[in-house]
Amino acid sequence: MVDPHLVWTAFFAPLAACVLITLLFLKNKTASSLVAIAGILTSFICSCLVFGQIFHTQHPAQLQQSLAWIHFDALTINFGFLMNPLAIVMLLIVTGVGSAIFIYSRGYMDEDPSAPRFFAELSLFAFSMIGIVLSNNFIQLFIFWELVGLSSYLLIGFWYTKPSAADAGVKAFLVNRLSDFGFLCGILLLWSVSGIAGGVRSFQFTDLAAVVPLLNPHLLTVIALLLFCGVVGKSAQIPLHVWLIDAMEGPTPVSALIHAATMVAAGVYFLARVFFVFAHSPTALTTIAYVGAITSLMAAILAVAENDIKRILAYSTLSQLGLMVMALGLGGPVQGMYHLTTHAFFKALLFLGAGSVIHALHEEQNIWNMRGLWKKMPITGWTFFIGMLALSGIPPLSGFWSKDAILYLAFKSSFTIYLIAAVACGLTAFYMGRLFCVAFWGKPSESHGGHGIHESPAVMTVPLIFLAVLSVIGGFIGIPHFLSPQETPEKLNMGMAAVSSVVAFLGLGFAYMFYGRRPAVDPLIALLKNFYTAMKNKFYFDIVYGWYVDHVQQNIALFLYRFEREFIVRLFLGGVTAAARAGGRTLRYFQNGIVQFYALVFVMGAVCLFLVLTKTL
Amino acid sequence: MTPDLSWIFLSPLLGLILVALVPPERTCLIRRISAVATLVPFVLSVWAYAAYDHAAGGFQFVQSVPWVLPLGISYHLGIDGINSLLIVLLGAVSFTAVLISSSIKERIKEYYILLLITILGTYGAFLSLDIFFFYFFHEVAAVPVFLMIAIWGSEKREYAAMKLTLYLAAGAAVALVGLLALYLASGVQTFDLVALQAQLARHPIPIGVQNWIFPLIVVGFGITLTLWPFYTWAPVGYGEAPTAVSMLHAGVLKKLGAYAIIRFAIQLMPQAAHVWMPFIAALAVANIIHCGLVALTQRDLKYLLGYSSCSHMGYILLGLACFNTMGINGVVYLMFAHGIMAALAFALTGFVETQTKTRDLDEWGGITKYMPFVGTCFIMAALASAGVPGFANFVAEILVLLGAWDQYRWYTVWAVFGLVITAIYLMKAIRLGFQGPPRPQFASLTDARTTVDKLPYALLLALLILTGCLPTVILSHIQTSTRVIVESMR
């Protein structure tokens, strides 16, 4: 049996840490970091205990508790949790990877005077993310969905005096808000038809799961696509992927935790959590699969032309998220969640490795200004190497297994999608190989203050090692089986696995061919010419959106402003003056200076008065 | 012991008499008296709110003294779930408005006298259960606003004061015609709200008559509520007014319009409400979208907040137009939430403006660096306004949207889109004014440092977060009273 107290503790520990830091420790760096770490570790330990309990419970292990948050008449909005294998896996990822990153941050943010604010916001994020994981109804989910967006905004813009960081925060918030427009409409629509079976309307996942199959399939498609809008924003799918790259302006631990391992994966988790809504709509599923596949390929292409170490990793996040979304669209929540889990391990590892490098190089992020880091920073180098191999899908590391599961699923459903995904995977191996060759290979450069470069402190390297171990063993700990014990685990298809491995090795091989000797300039510039320019410009998405905001939106607003000035104000001012003039003109007739006229009016009035009085008497 | 409602508006009156007796140069004493004269009714309001038995419902703590018998006018006070919440709102806003008025340096005595008159008039209007007294107090509150804008306002103060007053006076005149017609048509010769409710529930006014009285009242008070297209007075009025007036007007006084529409139009003439409110719902969408987009063009933060406030009134109007408990509860909730939020945002803007001498967002830039507390509070107020969960506005807006969905599906979609627009202009405001590189010329700015300095902002923020996280604090309190209104519409 699952102990609900443990779940509630895991839920609220980071919030308690956030409140405590905000009220008491905003000036105290050490205390604030310790409180934040204590909060997330408490959550992690509770999650582990709950995991043990679920593991030993007969299937289906599910526990739900609700408190009425809003309740009157027919409306009930609950605040509660729904604990099941899916939720506990995600909870373990969030709190486990979170713990590693919180500890790492203590070292990384050591010199920043605003570190207490950082830890407060990071704890707020952890709380919101746990909220998404545990929510048992749509409104609660939406609340935490928004709060996650809020903490992401705050953390991207953590260095708010830097214009690029502040802009990136605003962009992330607004893009997510735009996607939430569809999301909220979807929630409202689903709620409004949820009483169809004769029951009261509900937001609860468990109630809705019973209602959804009864709905009109067209309506269900609309609902599913509207809900998917939210995923497109949060998980940065095309065409709303633009915010995630800019989000790299935030501190690196934030990029690792929020913009790689957990928050951006929330969309995928959401799809898996309420898969019952999508499962009955083939149209929606196909759309989702294609959006995911295209995102995956596009991001993989863009990553090849990027030179900023964090942005390369951000593109690879986009690409992997695309794969996960695609898996969900192909009807494979287990495969999607499997890849989410392994991705969380190795992507957090890669980002923290990148952070370690950036920290050592004093904020240098361009890979062409790095060289031979492996020798200077052996722990970072080795762990980064492991992460790189895992992401590239080299067996037997974790990434291979989960990617292979998705590719096999794609192969069974649609060859087009399989092809897109396979190319994306090959490119992934290529750009990761490129990154590694350029930054870590070769002789250490002496020009770039080479003597000052040294390995990061233990508080940063221990989380790296922890995550590296997870990246290695992630494929062997039975995640897919735990997520769906009923299904017999599919036998590894040797042919498919061989193809996946060949694709990954080919990617790495090409990377070595191009960059193994560490050229000073990227040979692709000469090779790809105009296409390279298009890649550099991120396929012009930002330019088009910027043009829309500056020209279309601003002009509509200005037009309405002028409409108000020129029309509404004039209309009333003009109306009032015209009325006053007309009134004056009418009254002027009564003041014409003719005494006889006055006498006439006077007599008529007297007569009227007389008549009225006699009537009443 | 039960709270005595008369004291709620008599204490500002007492304070105002005391201020009048103190020599003008004793400014410190004047400020203290005013603070106490607004703190006492605030505490009394909270007490009344807590003591109100919401399970029983109805009007409680009633005081009734017949006054002009032949006309049916009586001094009749009482609270139900709705106005008891609104006096708490007024209490919080008026107390903080007095506290932040320490930035006023000239004609201090007159300033506080006028401010206290406005406050006592608003209390009176909310507490009165007699339409005559409601209208009387409503006017008492309105007159000093004109003077305060005209004397203590910024550059375009005369224009703003004239415009605001003309619009509101016109609205009040239209509403007065409606109220008098209602009085005559009811056939019971009384201004007493309770008696009217009882009478009209049994013998409704003929629908033909209702149909022309109703729009008079709704448009008349709708002007106060910045109903589209009668909103143009608000941005300029709030923009040029002294901070305390902006807080009080945007926060509370404008809600008198919504309150009057609920009490006198919708509840007393439900049949006409069904005819007219769908049109109001369309105007509400115009409010949300038009005012929201115009806010995008603004660079003066107070004007931007003014347009934002007009835009938010759209949600109140939309909620009023849906005849269910979700909508009405959402409206009452939003009146409270928006009131606190608007007061907070205007107060913080005023705090920065006093030191920078400008409200132009392009000139501010990175203010948070020098004023971390004030900057953070403003960002939180803006987030609340943008409907981020955790703040009261989110709860209110979600209730309105849920309430409106069945009846006005496409309007509701637009209203949801309004949340996107709100986020755009507020994020832009934060980005321009509070983030980015700090300006060297503002390096000498001082943040709110002492507890007394921080108190008003912390108080309002705490209320927003409390009611945002625990909606039952308000919902369980108001629902008996809102249910009465919804039932009268069936």
Report on this model:
- The complex is a heterodimer of chains A (617) and B (490).
- Chain A has 617 residues and is mainly α.
- Chain A is built from 26 helices and 2 strands.
- Chain A has helices spanning 4-24, 29-55, 85-108, 115-134, 138-156, 163-192, 205-211, 217-234, 242-246, 252-261, 266-273, 275-279, 282-304, 309-329, 333-360, 373-376, 378-392, 398-413, 415-440, 458-473, 479-483, 494-515, 523-528, 530-536, 541-588, 595-616, and strands spanning 63-72, 75-83.
- In chain A, strand 1 and strand 2 form a beta hairpin.
- The N and C termini of chain A lie far apart (90 Å).
- The relative contact order of chain A is 0.07.
- With 490 residues, chain B is mainly alpha-helical.
- Chain B has one domain (5-488).
- Chain B is built from 21 helices and 2 strands.
- The mean pLDDT of chain B is 92.
- The interface between A and B is large, with 47 and 52 residues.
Query: Taking strands numbered 1, 2, ... along the chain, how are they ordered across the largest sheet of chain A?
Result: 1-2
Q: What is the count of β-strands of chain B?
A: 2
Query: What value does the Rg of chain A take, in angstroms?
Result: 31 Å
Oligomer, anyone?
A: heterodimer
Total separate domains of chain B: 1
Please summarize the sheet with the most strands of chain A: 2 strands, antiparallel
Please summarize the sheet with the most strands of chain B. 2 strands, antiparallel
Pattern of helices and strands of chain B: HHEEHHHHHHHHHHHHHHHHHHH
Q: How far is it from the N-terminal to the C-terminal residue of chain A, by CA?
A: 90 Å
| Helical fraction of chain A | over 70%
Residues in β-strands, percent of chain A:
under 5%
Regions of chain B with pLDDT < 50 over 5+ consecutive residues?
Answer: none
| SS elements, strand count of chain A | 2
Class by alpha and beta content of chain B: mainly alpha
- Write out the strand line-up for the largest beta sheet of chain B, numbering strands in chain order: 1-2
Q: Which structural class is indicated by helix and strand composition of chain A? A: mainly alpha
Shape of chain A: globular
* Strand-residue proportion of chain B: under 5%
* Run of helices and strands of chain A: HHEEHHHHHHHHHHHHHHHHHHHHHHHH
Distance between the termini of chain B: 37 Å
